[in-house]
Amino acid sequence: MSARSPRFSSTRLLPEPTLLGHIGGGLLERLITATSSTHPELGISVLLRSVPELFVQRYPNVKIVNGTFDDFEVIEEAVSKAEIVIHARDVDRERCCEALCSGLRTRTQPSYLIHLSGAAAISNFHFQTWEGKPAEKIYSDIDDIDAICYLPMDRLHRPTDGMVQDTASDLVKIATNSNLLSLYVEALMKTKEAFHLGLGQNYKAVVHLLDVLELFMLIIEKALCGGDNAPWGKEA
Q1: Nearest C-alpha neighbor of 166 from the set 70, 233, 236, 79
Q2: Using one digit for the tens of pLDDT, what is the confidence trace for 45-69?
């Protein structure tokens, strides 16, 4: 992380982190480790429906916001006080996304929302017949960015992605990431072997959790430095 920026005395809201494993928990660990010396002025808040054992002992300086993804007012208030908001779990919960966006719209200072989306929005899930055929189109997040951002609203993740995109403004900067592999892994654990459907010609790209965390940290650092010299919105 670079030298701290004096303009920020920031609180961050990270929905539902776990102590180990998933994106929220891994990112929480990275944030505390990376910013303890370079950004000691920062405060970190997390939304928890229940407090895991040893959480307070492990993260004594993290503020706990008690609530669930359905507690609109709790989320809205917490976000209204946060300069950097990280939405990294259960991102299809529309009530939660509405609260995040509503809280951000009340802010009068520059704010940043880092939102985890999903690649299923551009998959052939919506119109294939499970014959294992390859997708007719391979999307580029550069050349096809307009097509990706304006997919039909019946696609997976599009309702919440649309809310996030509509919240972007001169004061609210948006960055969106994507990650998905859990459904296939769950099926592998049940069958105890690899398998394919039909022709088995379809495929998808995956990314390691640690690489996702590195991307989140890169975006957060850009936000801490005022967001300059970094793309936001669909260009991110």
Answers
A1: 233
A2: 999 888 888 889 999 989 999 998 8
C-alpha 179/C-alpha 88 separation (Å) is: 10
Alpha helices (H) in the chain, listed in sequence order: 23-38, 55-58, 72-80, 94-105, 145-149, 158-167, 182-191, 209-224
Report the candidate in 35, 29, 33 with the shortest Cα–Cα distance to residue 225: 35
CA 48, CA 68: separation in Å to the nearest integer?
A: 7
94-97, long-range: CB < 8 A, 24+ apart: 94/159, 94/160, 94/163, 95/69, 95/70, 96/15, 96/69, 96/70, 97/160, 97/163, 97/164
Q: What is the pLDDT of residues 4-49, one digit of tens each?
A: 333 333 455 554 433 333 788 888 888 888 888 788 888 899 998 8
Q: How far apart are CA 98 and CA 89, in angstroms?
A: 15
Handedness of CA 193, 197, 201, 207 (dihedral sign): negative
pTM of the complete model: 0.76
